[in-house]
Amino acid sequence: MARAPHQRGGGPDLPEITITSPNIREALAKAKEIGPAVQRNLRRDLRGVGDDIIRDQRSILDGAKPGNARKAGMRIKKIQRKGGGKSYMRAVNVYKAEAASRSRSTGMRKRIKAALKTRVVAGTTRSGISIRADKSVGGVMVKGWNKKVIRHPVFGNREQFVSQFGQPYWWEPIKRGQVAAKEKALAAIDDALNGKG
Description:
Blueprint: H1 5-8, E1 17-19, H2 24-34, H3 36-47, H4 51-61, E2 68-79, E3 88-98, H5 108-115, E4 116-122, E5 127-133, H6 135-138, H7 141-144, E6 149-154, E7 157-165, H8 171-193
Antiparallel strand pairs: 1-5, 2-3, 4-5, 6-7
Helix pairs in contact: 2-3, 3-8, 4-5, 4-8
């Protein structure tokens, strides 16, 4: 049985956003029939369809560093089950922000930004364009930093823990940009196959 990507030490640690229609494999094969240069150019253009989403994600990561999260109480939240099951009530923590006392940087956000990329997949079993956050480049925090609140050990002290606000950078840029990314992919394929590129 194959191990999950995080167990293999690489691969995406956040869900990928994948554009699977039209069939990228077929489009690249048709472009290759026209000429290898057309196929190369199409592949390059397809790798660029996620640039705006990634730029948006990186701009969130460039924002002000979030502070510590101090527990300020609890509230009741209504949870809707996936698949339309019966909803239920659950107590959740409420946090207030405190300035972080630590000012030096470990370069974590810079590594996360470097981990964001668009990949073109044209295999026999899987075909599409995916925007990924690669754990092998960005480290384990590509997923953790996307959370609203992170609990982690204090630096230099593995027995004391602190809560800190994260920087949810993943989903909102994808929601805003996925339609435009798909339109770019369709236009790139149309241009390549109809001699406009």
